[in-house]
Design brief:
The protein has 116 residues and is mostly beta strands. The chain is 0% helix and 59% strand. It is built from no helices and 11 strands. Strand 7 and strand 8 form a beta hairpin. The N and C termini lie far apart (40 Å).
């Protein structure tokens, strides 16, 4: 099993920045891919960004150039630096880590609210 703990959400004005963190514990040697997803009220959960343990990242078009995903393999922690935030970025942000056998583990979610 893998346990994920997220932190860093909050309220920010449009144009501001926030940095999310997600720390993993447990059977972390199984983790291959890590990422952030978000779910706004009334909408489906969507991918924000992913990063592989060996390198390489992927971003949703809506956040390219504004968000940066990074990882600390030693701490088994991933980060999401969010700059130039927009009201449409308001959502609950979830961390997900997946094993190389496609078993997924989710964090509890952290609220990000961007005011206009």
């Amino acid at each position: 099993q893998v346990q994920l703990v997220e932190s860093g959400g909050g309220l920010v004005q449009a144009g501001g920045s926030l940095k999310l963190s997600c720390a993993a514990s447990g059977s972390t040697f199984r983790i291959a891919t890590m990422g952030w997803y978000r779910q706004a009220p009334g909408k489906e959960r969507e991918l924000v960004a992913t990063i592989r343990r060996g390198g390489g990242s992927n971003y949703a078009d809506s956040v390219k150039g504004r968000f940066t995903i990074s990882r600390d393999n030693a701490k088994i922690t991933i980060y999401l630096q969010m700059d130039s935030l927009k009201p449409e970025d308001t959502a609950v942000y979830y961390c997900k880590m997946s094993t190389n056998t496609n078993i997924d583990f989710w964090g509890q979610g952290t609220q990000v609210t961007v005011s206009s």
